Amino acid sequence: MTTYEAVIGLEVHAQLLTRTKLFCGCSAEYGAEPNTHVCPVCLGLPGALPVPNEKAIELAIRAGLALGCKVRTTSRFARKNYFYPDLSKNYQTSQYDEPIDEHGELVIEVDGVEKRIGITRAHLEEDAAKNVHGEGGGLHTVVDYNRAGTPLLEIVSEPDLRSAAEAEAYLKKLRDILMFIGVNDGNLEEGSFRCDANVSIRPVGQEEFGTRTELKNINSFKFVRKAIEYEIARQEAVVSSGGKIVQETRTWNEAQQKTVTMRSKEEAHDYRYFPCPDLPPIRVSEERIESIRASLPELPDAKRARYVEQLGLTPYDAGVLTGHPEIARFFEATLAALGDEKLGKKVANFIQSEVLRFVETRGLEATFPVKAEALAGLLALVEKGSINGKIAKQVFAEMVETGASAESIVESKGLAAVTDTAALEAEIQKVLDANPAQVEQYRGGKQAVFGFFVGQVMKATKGQADPKAVQEILRRLLG
Amino acid sequence: MSEPKISVDVVRHVARLARLRVTDEEASALASQLSHVLDHMDELNALDVSEVPPTSHAIPLDSPFREDAVREGLSREEALAGAPLEIAGGFAVPKVLGGEG
After folding, report:
1. CA separation, residue B93 to residues A319, A347, B90 (Å)
2. Do the chains contact at A139 and B64, CB–CB below 8 Å?
3. Highest mean pLDDT range out of A229-238, A241-250, A380-389?
4. What is the pLDDT of residues B38-96, one digit of tens each?
5. What top-level class would CATH report for the domain A421-478?
6. Fold topology of B8-45
7. Rounded to a whole number, what is the distance in Å from the CA of A187 to chain B's nearest CA?
Protein backbone atom coordinates (compact mmCIF):
# COMPACT_ATOMS: atom_id res chain seq x y z
CA MET A 1 0.00 0.00 0.00
CA THR A 2 1.23 3.48 -0.79
CA THR A 3 2.09 5.73 2.13
CA TYR A 4 1.27 9.37 1.67
CA GLU A 5 2.64 12.49 3.20
CA ALA A 6 0.83 15.77 3.56
CA VAL A 7 2.15 19.02 2.13
CA ILE A 8 0.74 22.10 3.81
CA GLY A 9 1.28 25.79 3.22
CA LEU A 10 -0.41 28.48 5.27
CA GLU A 11 -1.62 31.96 4.43
CA VAL A 12 -2.27 34.15 7.40
CA HIS A 13 -4.06 37.46 7.21
CA ALA A 14 -3.02 39.54 10.19
CA GLN A 15 -4.71 42.85 10.79
CA LEU A 16 -2.13 45.53 11.51
CA LEU A 17 -2.70 47.51 14.70
CA THR A 18 -3.25 50.93 13.25
CA ARG A 19 -5.82 53.48 14.31
CA THR A 20 -6.88 54.10 10.73
CA LYS A 21 -7.30 52.20 7.48
CA LEU A 22 -4.55 51.49 4.97
CA PHE A 23 -5.37 54.22 2.46
CA CYS A 24 -7.70 56.64 4.25
CA GLY A 25 -8.18 58.24 7.65
CA CYS A 26 -11.28 56.24 8.57
CA SER A 27 -11.13 54.52 11.93
CA ALA A 28 -10.11 50.85 11.77
CA GLU A 29 -11.86 50.10 15.05
CA TYR A 30 -13.82 46.85 15.22
CA GLY A 31 -17.49 46.61 16.06
CA ALA A 32 -18.93 50.00 15.05
CA GLU A 33 -22.42 50.41 13.59
CA PRO A 34 -22.45 49.40 9.89
CA ASN A 35 -21.08 51.94 7.42
CA THR A 36 -20.08 54.53 10.00
CA HIS A 37 -16.33 54.27 9.33
CA VAL A 38 -16.42 55.07 5.65
CA CYS A 39 -15.28 57.80 3.27
CA PRO A 40 -14.96 58.32 -0.49
CA VAL A 41 -11.66 56.38 -0.59
CA CYS A 42 -12.82 53.15 1.09
CA LEU A 43 -16.20 53.35 -0.61
CA GLY A 44 -14.41 53.58 -3.94
CA LEU A 45 -16.19 56.75 -5.00
CA PRO A 46 -14.97 58.20 -8.32
CA GLY A 47 -12.00 60.51 -8.04
CA ALA A 48 -11.00 59.54 -4.52
CA LEU A 49 -7.27 58.88 -4.17
CA PRO A 50 -5.58 56.55 -1.69
CA VAL A 51 -2.65 57.68 0.47
CA PRO A 52 -0.76 54.95 2.35
CA ASN A 53 -0.76 54.94 6.14
CA GLU A 54 2.86 55.30 7.28
CA LYS A 55 2.18 53.31 10.45
CA ALA A 56 0.89 50.34 8.44
CA ILE A 57 4.08 50.33 6.35
CA GLU A 58 6.15 50.49 9.53
CA LEU A 59 4.26 47.60 11.14
CA ALA A 60 4.66 45.50 7.99
CA ILE A 61 8.41 46.12 8.09
CA ARG A 62 8.48 45.33 11.80
CA ALA A 63 6.76 42.00 11.19
CA GLY A 64 9.06 41.23 8.26
CA LEU A 65 12.17 41.85 10.32
CA ALA A 66 10.89 39.75 13.23
CA LEU A 67 10.26 36.91 10.77
CA GLY A 68 13.74 37.15 9.33
CA CYS A 69 12.55 38.55 6.01
CA LYS A 70 14.43 40.70 3.56
CA VAL A 71 12.55 44.01 3.51
CA ARG A 72 12.32 45.68 0.13
CA THR A 73 13.39 49.31 -0.04
CA THR A 74 11.04 49.59 -3.03
CA SER A 75 7.74 47.80 -3.00
CA ARG A 76 4.62 48.37 -4.98
CA PHE A 77 0.87 48.11 -4.72
CA ALA A 78 -1.06 46.24 -7.37
CA ARG A 79 -4.70 45.82 -8.22
CA LYS A 80 -6.20 42.38 -7.82
CA ASN A 81 -9.29 42.43 -10.00
CA TYR A 82 -12.45 40.53 -9.26
CA PHE A 83 -16.16 41.24 -9.03
CA TYR A 84 -17.77 40.64 -5.69
CA PRO A 85 -19.77 42.95 -3.43
CA ASP A 86 -17.12 42.84 -0.72
CA LEU A 87 -15.12 45.22 -2.91
CA SER A 88 -16.26 48.72 -3.67
CA LYS A 89 -13.83 49.26 -6.54
CA ASN A 90 -13.97 45.82 -8.20
CA TYR A 91 -10.34 45.40 -7.26
CA GLN A 92 -8.49 44.87 -4.04
CA THR A 93 -5.36 46.92 -3.54
CA SER A 94 -2.69 44.40 -2.69
CA GLN A 95 0.94 43.68 -3.51
CA TYR A 96 1.95 41.24 -6.18
CA ASP A 97 5.43 40.94 -7.64
CA GLU A 98 7.12 43.37 -5.28
CA PRO A 99 5.87 42.56 -1.77
CA ILE A 100 7.35 44.48 1.12
CA ASP A 101 8.79 41.40 2.93
CA GLU A 102 10.32 38.26 1.39
CA HIS A 103 12.36 35.16 2.24
CA GLY A 104 11.83 34.80 5.97
CA GLU A 105 11.58 31.83 8.23
CA LEU A 106 10.17 30.64 11.48
CA VAL A 107 11.41 27.79 13.65
CA ILE A 108 8.76 25.56 15.17
CA GLU A 109 9.04 22.71 17.64
CA VAL A 110 6.85 19.63 17.52
CA ASP A 111 7.47 16.68 19.87
CA GLY A 112 10.82 18.13 20.84
CA VAL A 113 12.03 18.35 17.25
CA GLU A 114 12.86 21.76 15.79
CA LYS A 115 11.98 22.50 12.20
CA ARG A 116 12.56 25.52 10.02
CA ILE A 117 9.51 26.71 8.06
CA GLY A 118 10.18 29.08 5.20
CA ILE A 119 8.17 32.27 4.78
CA THR A 120 7.81 33.05 1.11
CA ARG A 121 6.56 36.58 1.51
CA ALA A 122 4.48 38.96 3.55
CA HIS A 123 2.60 41.64 1.69
CA LEU A 124 0.34 44.53 2.52
CA GLU A 125 -3.23 44.59 1.35
CA GLU A 126 -6.56 46.13 2.21
CA ASP A 127 -9.28 44.06 3.83
CA ALA A 128 -12.60 43.61 2.04
CA ALA A 129 -16.04 44.66 3.28
CA LYS A 130 -18.28 42.41 5.33
CA ASN A 131 -21.16 40.75 3.52
CA VAL A 132 -24.26 39.41 5.19
CA HIS A 133 -26.10 37.07 2.86
CA GLY A 134 -29.79 36.39 2.66
CA GLU A 135 -31.10 39.63 4.17
CA GLY A 136 -34.28 41.40 3.10
CA GLY A 137 -36.45 38.29 2.90
CA GLY A 138 -33.55 36.22 1.57
CA LEU A 139 -33.25 38.30 -1.59
CA HIS A 140 -30.31 40.50 -0.69
CA THR A 141 -26.74 40.60 0.40
CA VAL A 142 -26.01 43.52 2.70
CA VAL A 143 -22.61 45.17 2.61
CA ASP A 144 -20.88 46.92 5.51
CA TYR A 145 -17.76 48.81 4.37
CA ASN A 146 -16.39 49.52 7.86
CA ARG A 147 -13.84 46.74 7.47
CA ALA A 148 -13.06 47.63 3.84
CA GLY A 149 -9.59 49.14 3.62
CA THR A 150 -8.35 47.91 7.00
CA PRO A 151 -4.63 47.12 6.69
CA LEU A 152 -3.71 43.44 6.54
CA LEU A 153 -0.39 41.71 6.28
CA GLU A 154 -0.74 38.48 4.35
CA ILE A 155 2.00 36.12 5.45
CA VAL A 156 2.56 33.20 3.12
CA SER A 157 4.55 30.16 4.21
CA GLU A 158 6.46 27.78 1.99
CA PRO A 159 4.79 24.36 1.62
CA ASP A 160 7.15 23.09 4.32
CA LEU A 161 4.61 21.79 6.80
CA ARG A 162 3.92 18.06 6.89
CA SER A 163 1.22 17.61 9.53
CA ALA A 164 -1.68 19.32 11.26
CA ALA A 165 0.42 19.52 14.42
CA GLU A 166 3.17 21.37 12.56
CA ALA A 167 0.62 23.74 11.06
CA GLU A 168 -0.80 24.49 14.48
CA ALA A 169 2.66 25.04 15.96
CA TYR A 170 3.51 27.42 13.11
CA LEU A 171 0.33 29.43 13.61
CA LYS A 172 0.82 29.71 17.35
CA LYS A 173 4.42 30.75 16.90
CA LEU A 174 3.52 33.32 14.29
CA ARG A 175 0.72 34.77 16.38
CA ASP A 176 3.01 34.90 19.38
CA ILE A 177 5.66 36.87 17.53
CA LEU A 178 3.19 39.30 15.98
CA MET A 179 1.63 39.97 19.38
CA PHE A 180 4.96 40.48 21.15
CA ILE A 181 6.10 43.02 18.56
CA GLY A 182 2.78 44.86 18.79
CA VAL A 183 1.80 44.30 15.17
CA ASN A 184 -1.37 42.24 15.67
CA ASP A 185 -3.70 41.48 18.57
CA GLY A 186 -3.93 37.76 17.75
CA ASN A 187 -7.69 37.70 18.06
CA LEU A 188 -8.93 34.76 15.99
CA GLU A 189 -12.56 35.09 17.07
CA GLU A 190 -12.86 38.68 15.91
CA GLY A 191 -11.03 37.79 12.73
CA SER A 192 -7.96 39.95 13.20
CA PHE A 193 -5.78 36.84 12.72
CA ARG A 194 -7.18 34.60 9.98
CA CYS A 195 -5.76 31.49 8.48
CA ASP A 196 -6.15 29.70 5.16
CA ALA A 197 -4.44 26.37 4.59
CA ASN A 198 -3.38 24.80 1.30
CA VAL A 199 -3.37 21.05 1.74
CA SER A 200 -2.28 18.29 -0.63
CA ILE A 201 -0.88 14.81 -0.31
CA ARG A 202 1.71 12.87 -2.31
CA PRO A 203 3.24 9.43 -2.09
CA VAL A 204 6.25 9.53 0.23
CA GLY A 205 9.35 10.05 -1.87
CA GLN A 206 7.60 11.87 -4.70
CA GLU A 207 8.97 15.35 -5.45
CA GLU A 208 6.01 16.71 -7.30
CA PHE A 209 3.07 18.14 -5.35
CA GLY A 210 -0.42 16.69 -5.54
CA THR A 211 -3.51 18.73 -6.35
CA ARG A 212 -4.29 20.96 -3.40
CA THR A 213 -7.45 22.14 -1.76
CA GLU A 214 -7.67 25.43 0.06
CA LEU A 215 -9.22 25.48 3.53
CA LYS A 216 -10.65 28.87 4.37
CA ASN A 217 -12.37 30.79 7.14
CA ILE A 218 -11.15 28.71 10.05
CA ASN A 219 -11.29 30.76 13.21
CA SER A 220 -9.61 28.74 15.95
CA PHE A 221 -6.39 26.78 16.36
CA LYS A 222 -8.39 23.73 17.31
CA PHE A 223 -10.43 23.91 14.11
CA VAL A 224 -7.32 24.44 11.99
CA ARG A 225 -5.89 21.24 13.36
CA LYS A 226 -9.11 19.29 12.96
CA ALA A 227 -9.75 20.64 9.47
CA ILE A 228 -6.26 19.77 8.24
CA GLU A 229 -6.35 16.31 9.82
CA TYR A 230 -9.73 15.64 8.26
CA GLU A 231 -8.63 16.95 4.89
CA ILE A 232 -5.49 14.80 4.81
CA ALA A 233 -7.55 11.69 5.64
CA ARG A 234 -10.19 12.62 3.07
CA GLN A 235 -7.62 13.11 0.31
CA GLU A 236 -5.91 9.82 1.17
CA ALA A 237 -9.25 8.03 0.96
CA VAL A 238 -10.03 9.61 -2.40
CA VAL A 239 -6.62 8.87 -3.91
CA SER A 240 -6.35 5.35 -2.46
CA SER A 241 -9.66 4.42 -4.02
CA GLY A 242 -8.45 5.60 -7.41
CA GLY A 243 -10.15 8.99 -7.34
CA LYS A 244 -8.75 12.43 -8.16
CA ILE A 245 -8.55 15.47 -5.88
CA VAL A 246 -10.48 18.43 -7.22
CA GLN A 247 -8.82 21.79 -6.74
CA GLU A 248 -11.37 23.73 -4.72
CA THR A 249 -12.01 25.85 -1.67
CA ARG A 250 -13.32 24.07 1.40
CA THR A 251 -14.18 25.11 4.92
CA TRP A 252 -14.48 23.39 8.29
CA ASN A 253 -17.97 22.53 9.41
CA GLU A 254 -17.74 22.06 13.16
CA ALA A 255 -21.27 20.65 13.48
CA GLN A 256 -20.56 17.92 10.93
CA GLN A 257 -16.91 17.51 11.94
CA LYS A 258 -15.75 17.63 8.36
CA THR A 259 -14.55 19.91 5.61
CA VAL A 260 -17.13 20.91 3.04
CA THR A 261 -16.93 22.52 -0.39
CA MET A 262 -17.47 26.28 -0.50
CA ARG A 263 -18.86 28.17 -3.41
CA SER A 264 -16.12 30.48 -4.52
CA LYS A 265 -15.89 33.69 -6.42
CA GLU A 266 -16.20 33.04 -10.12
CA GLU A 267 -12.96 32.77 -12.00
CA ALA A 268 -11.28 33.50 -8.74
CA HIS A 269 -7.85 32.60 -10.02
CA ASP A 270 -7.65 35.01 -12.90
CA TYR A 271 -7.08 38.22 -11.03
CA ARG A 272 -5.25 40.17 -13.77
CA TYR A 273 -2.92 41.95 -11.37
CA PHE A 274 -1.35 45.17 -12.55
CA PRO A 275 0.52 47.97 -10.76
CA CYS A 276 -1.92 50.40 -9.15
CA PRO A 277 -1.60 53.66 -11.08
CA ASP A 278 -2.96 55.61 -8.09
CA LEU A 279 -0.15 54.53 -5.80
CA PRO A 280 3.47 55.38 -6.60
CA PRO A 281 6.13 52.97 -5.37
CA ILE A 282 6.68 52.70 -1.62
CA ARG A 283 10.26 53.60 -0.92
CA VAL A 284 11.84 53.06 2.46
CA SER A 285 15.46 53.87 3.22
CA GLU A 286 17.89 51.31 4.63
CA GLU A 287 18.35 53.65 7.60
CA ARG A 288 14.64 53.56 8.33
CA ILE A 289 14.58 49.77 8.12
CA GLU A 290 17.56 49.54 10.46
CA SER A 291 15.97 51.92 12.95
CA ILE A 292 12.83 49.77 12.98
CA ARG A 293 15.03 46.70 13.49
CA ALA A 294 16.70 48.39 16.43
CA SER A 295 13.30 49.11 17.98
CA LEU A 296 12.20 45.47 17.95
CA PRO A 297 11.61 44.11 21.45
CA GLU A 298 12.95 40.80 22.67
CA LEU A 299 11.12 38.06 20.75
CA PRO A 300 9.25 35.31 22.62
CA ASP A 301 11.82 32.58 21.91
CA ALA A 302 14.68 34.71 23.15
CA LYS A 303 12.64 35.66 26.19
CA ARG A 304 11.90 32.06 27.07
CA ALA A 305 15.55 31.12 26.67
CA ARG A 306 16.58 34.03 28.91
CA TYR A 307 14.04 33.10 31.59
CA VAL A 308 15.48 29.59 31.67
CA GLU A 309 19.18 30.39 31.42
CA GLN A 310 19.38 33.63 33.35
CA LEU A 311 16.52 33.41 35.83
CA GLY A 312 16.54 29.67 36.43
CA LEU A 313 12.93 29.04 35.43
CA THR A 314 11.87 25.68 34.06
CA PRO A 315 11.03 25.68 30.33
CA TYR A 316 7.42 25.05 31.31
CA ASP A 317 7.29 28.09 33.61
CA ALA A 318 9.04 30.21 30.98
CA GLY A 319 6.36 29.11 28.52
CA VAL A 320 3.52 30.06 30.86
CA LEU A 321 5.00 33.48 31.64
CA THR A 322 5.48 34.26 27.96
CA GLY A 323 1.99 33.05 27.10
CA HIS A 324 0.93 36.66 26.58
CA PRO A 325 3.05 39.79 26.14
CA GLU A 326 1.38 41.48 29.11
CA ILE A 327 2.03 38.52 31.43
CA ALA A 328 5.71 38.62 30.50
CA ARG A 329 5.71 42.36 31.07
CA PHE A 330 4.05 41.96 34.48
CA PHE A 331 6.56 39.30 35.51
CA GLU A 332 9.50 41.42 34.41
CA ALA A 333 8.11 44.55 36.06
CA THR A 334 7.61 42.74 39.37
CA LEU A 335 11.11 41.37 39.22
CA ALA A 336 12.54 44.78 38.32
CA ALA A 337 10.72 46.41 41.24
CA LEU A 338 12.19 43.81 43.57
CA GLY A 339 15.58 44.61 42.08
CA ASP A 340 17.00 41.11 42.47
CA GLU A 341 17.16 38.71 39.53
CA LYS A 342 17.78 35.82 41.87
CA LEU A 343 14.15 36.07 42.93
CA GLY A 344 12.97 35.19 39.40
CA LYS A 345 11.93 31.68 40.32
CA LYS A 346 10.00 32.82 43.42
CA VAL A 347 8.22 35.59 41.53
CA ALA A 348 7.38 33.17 38.73
CA ASN A 349 5.94 30.66 41.20
CA PHE A 350 3.83 33.22 43.00
CA ILE A 351 2.46 34.66 39.75
CA GLN A 352 1.56 31.21 38.49
CA SER A 353 -0.02 29.93 41.69
CA GLU A 354 -1.79 33.10 42.85
CA VAL A 355 -1.97 35.83 40.23
CA LEU A 356 -2.74 34.14 36.90
CA ARG A 357 -6.17 32.90 37.86
CA PHE A 358 -7.28 36.54 38.14
CA VAL A 359 -5.75 37.59 34.82
CA GLU A 360 -8.03 38.10 31.87
CA THR A 361 -6.68 38.68 28.40
CA ARG A 362 -8.44 40.04 25.39
CA GLY A 363 -6.37 40.58 22.31
CA LEU A 364 -3.23 42.43 23.35
CA GLU A 365 -4.81 43.69 26.55
CA ALA A 366 -4.72 42.01 29.91
CA THR A 367 -6.14 42.96 33.29
CA PHE A 368 -4.22 42.17 36.45
CA PRO A 369 -5.65 42.02 39.99
CA VAL A 370 -2.83 44.17 41.38
CA LYS A 371 -0.03 46.30 39.97
CA ALA A 372 3.39 44.72 39.48
CA GLU A 373 4.87 47.19 42.00
CA ALA A 374 2.27 46.20 44.59
CA LEU A 375 3.06 42.52 44.10
CA ALA A 376 6.75 43.34 44.44
CA GLY A 377 5.91 45.08 47.74
CA LEU A 378 4.31 41.88 49.00
CA LEU A 379 7.11 39.61 47.87
CA ALA A 380 9.65 41.97 49.41
CA LEU A 381 8.00 41.43 52.79
CA VAL A 382 8.42 37.68 52.34
CA GLU A 383 12.08 38.16 51.44
CA LYS A 384 12.69 40.28 54.52
CA GLY A 385 11.12 37.56 56.65
CA SER A 386 8.33 39.88 57.82
CA ILE A 387 5.74 37.36 56.68
CA ASN A 388 5.94 33.76 55.53
CA GLY A 389 4.74 32.30 52.26
CA LYS A 390 1.43 31.17 53.65
CA ILE A 391 0.56 34.57 55.07
CA ALA A 392 1.66 36.11 51.75
CA LYS A 393 -1.13 34.25 49.97
CA GLN A 394 -3.63 35.50 52.53
CA VAL A 395 -2.34 39.09 52.18
CA PHE A 396 -2.47 38.79 48.40
CA ALA A 397 -6.14 37.77 48.51
CA GLU A 398 -6.77 40.83 50.68
CA MET A 399 -4.86 43.07 48.26
CA VAL A 400 -6.99 41.83 45.38
CA GLU A 401 -10.13 42.41 47.41
CA THR A 402 -9.34 45.86 48.78
CA GLY A 403 -6.58 47.26 46.60
CA ALA A 404 -4.60 48.13 49.74
CA SER A 405 -0.83 47.68 49.84
CA ALA A 406 0.74 44.57 51.32
CA GLU A 407 2.44 46.61 54.03
CA SER A 408 -0.72 48.28 55.22
CA ILE A 409 -2.63 44.99 55.29
CA VAL A 410 0.14 43.28 57.27
CA GLU A 411 0.20 46.17 59.69
CA SER A 412 -3.53 46.69 60.15
CA LYS A 413 -4.22 42.99 60.60
CA GLY A 414 -1.19 42.40 62.76
CA LEU A 415 0.07 39.71 60.42
CA ALA A 416 3.75 40.43 60.81
CA ALA A 417 5.73 37.36 61.71
CA VAL A 418 6.52 36.85 65.34
CA THR A 419 10.24 37.29 65.00
CA ASP A 420 10.78 38.23 68.60
CA THR A 421 12.27 34.99 69.91
CA ALA A 422 11.40 35.70 73.52
CA ALA A 423 7.74 36.28 72.66
CA LEU A 424 7.66 33.19 70.49
CA GLU A 425 9.27 31.15 73.20
CA ALA A 426 6.63 32.32 75.67
CA GLU A 427 3.89 31.26 73.24
CA ILE A 428 5.47 27.87 72.80
CA GLN A 429 5.85 27.39 76.52
CA LYS A 430 2.14 28.13 76.89
CA VAL A 431 1.32 25.42 74.36
CA LEU A 432 3.51 22.90 76.17
CA ASP A 433 1.95 23.79 79.51
CA ALA A 434 -1.52 23.31 78.08
CA ASN A 435 -0.70 19.82 76.74
CA PRO A 436 1.21 17.94 79.43
CA ALA A 437 0.05 14.53 78.22
CA GLN A 438 1.51 15.05 74.77
CA VAL A 439 4.75 16.36 76.28
CA GLU A 440 4.98 13.12 78.21
CA GLN A 441 4.35 11.08 75.06
CA TYR A 442 7.05 12.96 73.13
CA ARG A 443 9.56 12.55 75.89
CA GLY A 444 8.59 8.91 76.06
CA GLY A 445 9.80 8.56 72.45
CA LYS A 446 6.69 9.25 70.40
CA GLN A 447 8.29 11.60 67.80
CA ALA A 448 5.06 11.99 65.83
CA VAL A 449 3.66 14.31 68.49
CA PHE A 450 6.18 16.93 67.34
CA GLY A 451 3.97 17.82 64.42
CA PHE A 452 1.08 18.33 66.79
CA PHE A 453 3.05 20.94 68.75
CA VAL A 454 4.08 22.79 65.59
CA GLY A 455 0.46 22.91 64.53
CA GLN A 456 -0.66 24.20 67.90
CA VAL A 457 1.99 26.91 67.92
CA MET A 458 1.12 28.04 64.41
CA LYS A 459 -2.50 28.16 65.42
CA ALA A 460 -1.68 30.16 68.53
CA THR A 461 0.32 32.65 66.46
CA LYS A 462 -2.31 32.73 63.70
CA GLY A 463 0.21 31.29 61.31
CA GLN A 464 2.52 34.26 61.67
CA ALA A 465 5.42 32.48 63.28
CA ASP A 466 8.37 31.44 61.19
CA PRO A 467 7.99 27.64 61.10
CA LYS A 468 11.76 27.15 61.22
CA ALA A 469 12.10 29.18 64.39
CA VAL A 470 9.16 27.33 65.94
CA GLN A 471 10.79 23.97 65.31
CA GLU A 472 14.10 25.12 66.73
CA ILE A 473 12.59 26.43 69.93
CA LEU A 474 10.31 23.44 70.31
CA ARG A 475 13.24 21.03 70.07
CA ARG A 476 15.13 22.99 72.63
CA LEU A 477 12.25 23.22 75.13
CA LEU A 478 11.23 19.59 74.69
CA GLY A 479 14.80 18.30 74.57
CA MET B 1 0.69 39.25 -41.61
CA SER B 2 1.63 36.84 -38.88
CA GLU B 3 -0.81 35.04 -36.58
CA PRO B 4 -2.76 37.63 -34.56
CA LYS B 5 -1.30 37.92 -31.07
CA ILE B 6 -4.70 38.20 -29.44
CA SER B 7 -7.21 35.61 -30.50
CA VAL B 8 -10.97 36.05 -30.50
CA ASP B 9 -11.12 33.53 -27.65
CA VAL B 10 -8.78 35.62 -25.52
CA VAL B 11 -10.93 38.68 -26.21
CA ARG B 12 -14.03 36.80 -25.12
CA HIS B 13 -12.34 35.54 -21.98
CA VAL B 14 -11.08 38.98 -20.93
CA ALA B 15 -14.44 40.53 -21.76
CA ARG B 16 -16.14 38.00 -19.55
CA LEU B 17 -13.76 38.67 -16.68
CA ALA B 18 -14.44 42.39 -17.08
CA ARG B 19 -18.20 41.79 -17.33
CA LEU B 20 -18.34 43.28 -20.83
CA ARG B 21 -20.75 41.95 -23.39
CA VAL B 22 -19.20 41.84 -26.88
CA THR B 23 -20.80 40.71 -30.11
CA ASP B 24 -18.94 38.36 -32.48
CA GLU B 25 -18.14 41.27 -34.76
CA GLU B 26 -16.81 43.37 -31.90
CA ALA B 27 -14.75 40.45 -30.65
CA SER B 28 -13.01 39.93 -33.97
CA ALA B 29 -12.50 43.69 -34.43
CA LEU B 30 -11.02 43.94 -30.94
CA ALA B 31 -8.81 40.91 -31.52
CA SER B 32 -7.30 42.57 -34.54
CA GLN B 33 -6.95 45.99 -32.87
CA LEU B 34 -5.37 44.58 -29.73
CA SER B 35 -3.00 42.51 -31.85
CA HIS B 36 -1.95 45.71 -33.64
CA VAL B 37 -1.13 47.27 -30.29
CA LEU B 38 1.09 44.32 -29.46
CA ASP B 39 2.70 44.49 -32.91
CA HIS B 40 3.66 48.04 -32.08
CA MET B 41 5.22 46.77 -28.84
CA ASP B 42 7.37 44.52 -31.01
CA GLU B 43 8.79 47.58 -32.70
CA LEU B 44 9.72 48.93 -29.28
CA ASN B 45 11.28 45.58 -28.50
CA ALA B 46 13.91 46.33 -31.08
CA LEU B 47 15.42 48.83 -28.65
CA ASP B 48 17.90 47.67 -26.07
CA VAL B 49 16.37 48.52 -22.72
CA SER B 50 18.27 45.97 -20.66
CA GLU B 51 19.74 48.81 -18.59
CA VAL B 52 16.39 50.53 -18.01
CA PRO B 53 14.27 49.49 -15.03
CA PRO B 54 10.65 48.64 -15.87
CA THR B 55 8.34 51.62 -15.60
CA SER B 56 5.16 50.95 -13.71
CA HIS B 57 4.36 54.59 -13.18
CA ALA B 58 4.64 57.40 -15.67
CA ILE B 59 5.55 60.00 -13.07
CA PRO B 60 8.85 59.69 -11.21
CA LEU B 61 7.37 60.02 -7.76
CA ASP B 62 7.65 58.08 -4.51
CA SER B 63 4.52 57.55 -2.50
CA PRO B 64 3.72 60.20 0.04
CA PHE B 65 2.58 58.83 3.39
CA ARG B 66 -0.25 59.72 5.69
CA GLU B 67 -0.05 59.98 9.46
CA ASP B 68 -2.11 57.36 11.31
CA ALA B 69 -4.68 59.82 12.62
CA VAL B 70 -8.44 59.39 12.36
CA ARG B 71 -10.22 61.80 10.05
CA GLU B 72 -13.93 62.29 9.96
CA GLY B 73 -15.40 60.47 6.97
CA LEU B 74 -18.94 60.44 5.70
CA SER B 75 -22.02 60.03 7.84
CA ARG B 76 -23.95 56.86 7.23
CA GLU B 77 -26.71 58.85 5.56
CA GLU B 78 -24.20 60.44 3.17
CA ALA B 79 -22.52 57.12 2.52
CA LEU B 80 -25.79 55.39 1.72
CA ALA B 81 -27.23 58.29 -0.28
CA GLY B 82 -26.29 56.63 -3.56
CA ALA B 83 -27.15 53.08 -2.52
CA PRO B 84 -29.71 51.34 -4.70
CA LEU B 85 -31.32 49.95 -1.56
CA GLU B 86 -30.57 50.17 2.13
CA ILE B 87 -31.19 47.40 4.65
CA ALA B 88 -30.18 47.71 8.30
CA GLY B 89 -27.68 50.46 7.63
CA GLY B 90 -26.02 48.52 4.84
CA PHE B 91 -25.80 48.63 1.06
CA ALA B 92 -28.25 46.02 -0.15
CA VAL B 93 -27.40 44.28 -3.41
CA PRO B 94 -29.01 41.32 -5.13
CA LYS B 95 -28.16 38.22 -3.14
CA VAL B 96 -24.86 36.59 -3.91
CA LEU B 97 -24.33 33.03 -2.82
CA GLY B 98 -21.92 32.78 0.08
CA GLY B 99 -18.46 33.21 -1.34
CA GLU B 100 -15.05 33.83 0.06
CA GLY B 101 -16.21 36.99 1.77
Report:
1. 49, 58, 9
2. no
3. A229-238
4. 888 888 888 888 888 777 777 778 888 999 999 999 999 999 998 989 999 999 999 88
5. mainly alpha
6. Histone, subunit A (1.10.20)
7. 18
